[in-house]
User: Which sequence fits this backbone?
């Protein structure tokens, strides 16, 4: 398969090992060729993972692509819609309400309107009953408060989608989402708030209590952009792997630990974390970080708008990246299945595991791959 030229400007505009290893692997994973690492601090994916971003895909209010407004993100409907495709996990954001209930919602604030006046409320300042009052209601005939959303350029827009659904709690997700689908639980904290350790500990313990009660055998990965929260949740439990989320140097933060893949490696090694989830641009701009991550015995997943381009995803597979978080679940899951998973399974069945790469539809010589790795950083500088 030839690698098609992809201009970044043509990509849709998006907003952007545990002690019980078996718990990571659901029925969606083929046991053939599965390699498990028994060390508690290691995580090895049994195959190239496809993870649905906020379920079936995030919502972008100003996108010209209707797929970005198809289904309300971070809802039971979005999660189960994603489960219809050959993916392994769904990723979603968890925050804890004022009365200690873990809920699933991405933004730090909820925007609404009353008597012509727009107002905002911080999710963590709301009680569960208040949080659930926004948007569609489960109770027939009940009208919820209107739901608005703030865009990156500061505009307040109606949160309109083609298929809507009500807000949900973490417990509901465990109870109502296809049990074979893994959960990548992002522990969500506001970048502009300084959290004390006792507060972080309390919030994480509340979330872990729900996970303990409802998870059963569901595969789970924890992740967080907050380095202290990521390290703390690793200390509080050793059942599930914890990944550190990073922009990989594509944005600059006051906390230097968030500003590069090299710093991310340090965070993981210091806290005994199992892997990194990076914005893919950060990896493509610094491909030399991938072998460093591997040398540190860490796993690497990615997110970002380039993950909605099949060729960019296949390139990551060749680089040794272990999975991608995507918005276009249907398209990317089918592309991965066709270009990566099926050739691998065919090779394993034939007993030629060592020839898997050669049999793959994605074929590059070592020289070509080296050239591409040098070229990619130049292509995505802007």
Assistant:
């Amino acid at each position: 398969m030839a690698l098609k030229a992809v201009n970044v400007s043509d990509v849709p505009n998006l907003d952007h090992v545990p002690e019980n290893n078996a718990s990571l692997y659901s029925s969606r994973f083929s046991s053939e060729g599965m390699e498990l690492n028994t060390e508690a601090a290691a995580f090895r994916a049994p195959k190239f993972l496809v993870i649905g971003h906020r379920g079936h895909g995030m919502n972008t209010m100003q996108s010209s692509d209707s797929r970005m407004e198809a289904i309300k993100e971070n809802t039971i409907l979005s999660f189960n819609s994603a489960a219809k495709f050959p993916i392994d996990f769904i990723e979603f954001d968890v925050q804890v309400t004022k009365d200690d209930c873990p809920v699933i919602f991405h933004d730090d604030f909820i925007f609404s309107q009353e008597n012509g006046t727009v107002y905002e409320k911080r999710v963590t300042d709301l009680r569960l009953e208040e949080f659930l009052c926004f948007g569609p209601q489960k109770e027939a005939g009940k009208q919820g408060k209107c739901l608005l959303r703030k865009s990156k350029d500061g505009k307040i827009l109606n949160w309109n989608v083609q298929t809507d659904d009500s807000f949900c709690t973490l417990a509901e997700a465990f109870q109502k989402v296809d049990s074979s689908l893994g959960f990548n639980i992002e522990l969500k904290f506001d970048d502009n708030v300084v959290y004390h350790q006792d507060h972080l500990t309390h919030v994480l313990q509340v979330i872990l209590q729900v996970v303990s009660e409802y998870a059963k055998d569901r595969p789970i990965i924890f992740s967080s952009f907050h380095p202290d929260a990521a390290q703390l949740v690793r200390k509080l439990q050793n059942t599930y792997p914890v990944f550190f989320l990073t922009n990989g140097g594509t944005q600059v933060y006051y906390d230097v630990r968030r500003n590069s893949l090299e710093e991310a490696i340090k965070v993981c090694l210091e806290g005994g974390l199992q892997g990194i989830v990076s914005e893919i641009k950060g990896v493509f701009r610094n491909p030399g970080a991938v072998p460093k991550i591997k040398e540190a015995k860490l796993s690497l997943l990615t997110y970002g708008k380039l993950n909605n381009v099949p060729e960019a995803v296949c390139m990551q597979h060749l680089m040794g990246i272990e999975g991608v978080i995507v918005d276009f679940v249907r398209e990317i899951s089918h592309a991965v299945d066709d270009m990566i998973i099926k050739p691998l399974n065919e090779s394993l069945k034939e007993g030629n595991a060592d020839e898997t790469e050669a049999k793959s539809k994605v074929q590059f010589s070592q020289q070509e791959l080296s050239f591409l790795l040098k070229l990619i950083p130049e292509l995505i500088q802007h």
Notes: The chain has one domain: 8-108+168-379.
